[in-house]
Design goal:
Elements: H1 3-15, E1 21-24, H2 31-39, E2 44-49, H3 52-62, E3 68-72, E4 86-92, H4 107-120, E5 121-131, H5 136-150, E6 157-163, E7 173-179
Parallel strand pairs: 1-2, 1-4, 2-3, 4-5
Antiparallel strand pairs: 5-7, 6-7
Helix pairs in contact: 4-5
This protein binds S-adenosylmethionine (SAM).
């Protein structure tokens, strides 16, 4: 992720003062999880990743923290692991940097998980997605996601896009969804 985009995600997280329950839907190396644990009042942070390598890396980075509930599971199975509403959910799509580039998020599971996570959001709860259309699988994922996002009921959720207007070659961008 470009540094400026990471900074923007952090600013959005920082502005949300009332985070008690959150989910990191793509834990990876654990950087986003660590940021939430260190910078919010989160009491429980559910984490999902399908790779054991991610679990090992994230647990090493975060250390012992009872608030962090990691699940070695796909995020489209969220209903089996999260039995409460969420104030925040974040997705950092694509593949694990430095890991196997074949293991990447896929639009079918991303959308399935988004449908379920939208239902779990508290009022004014947010979903933040960082999307990378710069690689072939990411381009397909971003196109399919945009079709899905355009159909979300505006009476229930605001869906916003933060994107570079002055960078070539399909730069990454952020989608923020907020429940009304
Ligand atoms: N946020 C991470 C960090 O701070 O290091 C980086 C995440 S990385 C870009 C994307 C991660 O999504 C990979 O670790 C990958 O294994 C994971 N992933 C892919 N498909 C998934 C799925 N269906 N459910 C949960 N995680 C998935």
């Amino acid at each position: 992720m470009g540094k400026r985009l990471t900074d923007l995600v952090k600013i959005i997280i920082d502005r949300k003062k009332d985070i008690k329950v959150a989910a990191d839907m793509t834990v990876g190396a654990g950087n986003d999880s660590l940021y939430i644990l260190e910078n919010t009042k989160v009491e429980r942070l559910y984490g999902f990743d399908i790779q054991k390598e991610a679990e090992i890396k994230a647990k090493k980075l975060i250390g012992e923290d009872l608030r962090f509930i990691f699940n070695l599971a796909s995020h489209d199975q969220i209903e089996n692991y999260v039995k409460e509403n969420l104030d925040l959910a974040i997705y950092n799509l694509g593949y694990l940097p430095g890991g196997n580039k074949e293991i990447t998020t896929k639009y079918q599971t991303t959308i399935k998980s988004l449908e379920k996570t939208l239902d779990l959001l508290n009022k004014e709860g947010k979903i933040i997605l960082t999307i990378y259309p710069g690689h072939p699988a990411g381009k397909v994922e971003s196109e399919e996601l945009e079709k899905f996002l355009a159909k979300i009921d505006p009476k229930k959720y605001a869906v916003m896009k933060l994107s570079y207007q002055n960078r070539p070659k399909n730069p990454p961008y952020i989608i923020v969804i907020q429940k009304n």
